[in-house]
Amino acid sequence: MDRNERVAEMEAILNKHTDAVKAFKKALAAFDEAQIAYDKLDAYYSSKDWFDDVDAYDKGEITVDCGVLTEDAVYDLIGDNYEMAKEMIRVANSIFQKH
């Protein structure tokens, strides 16, 4: 590989990673903000209100979209949220170990 090819390759890596960092910062900020609402959902999912709402749905008293009353939707989100946090730690540790 000659110098021009090497520099062109490194320039492409710089530009691609710069874009990735910008996109991740934006996504991370949105994710962090969403965690506030997520915490409310997580608390609701294990509350008496949730069980009461499921009973009301079963009786036909709930007429709005109610995927939140299925066990799988919220449970899966809780698992996905946890796995996302673990993945962020793994990536962060990899970066820290290199510096």
From TrEMBL:
Protein name as annotated: DUF4298 domain-containing protein
Q: Domain of life, per the record?
A: Bacteria
Task: Tell me which species this is from.
Answer: Aedoeadaptatus acetigenes
One Pfam family linked to the record: DUF4298
